[in-house]
Design brief:
This protein is an all-alpha fold. It is 77% helix and 0% strand. The longest helix has 31 residues. The radius of gyration is 19 Å and the shape is globular. The mean pLDDT is 92.
Length: 221
């Protein structure tokens, strides 16, 4: 927080700031950055938690875990580039809302994990929902963050949203790590701290969904 305050103070004084603070008056850009924090934050936090669950509790090898998570990645790889058609039809806001809603549904479904693998009933649907959510939200947020920004500040707007993606991932991942740091998982038993960590990830996505819904509402007003 001290470094952030110092950064803002310096940027307000220098003749050629790295980040022109006036750009933050753009509500669309600010909303996109806040949602970006929650998209990668919840996604990265969940991936860490899911990895711990698969390898420690279920006893899966890294290769088995990777193959189990692969369907979500395939949706991102092949679905993300095709999201442009949906954005052209519905706009960025509804796609961000749909993506975060898909995240939340997947996280809530993962609360049904047990000490024994329930791949078809829990893990696979969760991965599919997360892949769909990321394919929807990530491209839409990149477009939303730079839409309506002057040509001379496109690089700045793009840099801000990419920083938000990275910062969100770091913050939520740190929170998840702290919550399960005291857990001592044993094969076949889910530690009690895993469930609050899932709720924490879900809460981050809910915050992003609220921000996205407010943005859609303002755009229609």
């Amino acid at each position: 927080m001290a470094l952030l305050a110092a950064f803002v103070a310096i940027e307000r004084r220098v003749a050629h700031p790295l980040v022109r603070l006036g750009i933050l008056r753009n509500r669309r850009l600010v909303g996109a950055n806040l949602a970006a924090l929650t998209v990668t934050g919840s996604y990265f936090g969940f991936q860490f938690l899911g990895t711990q669950y698969a390898q420690v509790v279920l006893g899966w090898s890294p290769l088995t875990m990777a193959l189990a998570f692969l369907p979500g990645g395939l949706i991102v790889a092949f679905g993300g580039p095709r999201t442009a058609r949906l954005i052209n039809r519905f706009g960025t806001g509804p796609l961000v809302v749909a993506g975060l809603a898909s995240f939340i549904t997947g996280y809530l479904l993962f609360l049904r994990i047990e000490g024994e693998p329930r791949y078809l009933a829990v893990i696979l649907p969760t991965m599919l929902l997360l892949g769909l959510g990321f394919a929807f939200a990530y491209p839409a947020l990149n477009i939303q963050a730079t839409a309506g920004v002057g040509d001379d500040e496109q690089g700045l707007a793009s840099g801000l949203v990419q920083a938000s993606f990275q910062i969100g991932g770091a913050i939520v991942l740190a929170g998840v790590s702290a919550m399960i740091a005291t857990a001592h998982p044993t094969p076949g038993a889910v530690p009690d701290s895993y469930y609050p960590a899932i709720w924490f990830v879900t809460g981050a996505a809910v915050f992003g969904l609220v921000v996205a819904l407010l943005g859609v509402r303002r755009s229609r007003a």
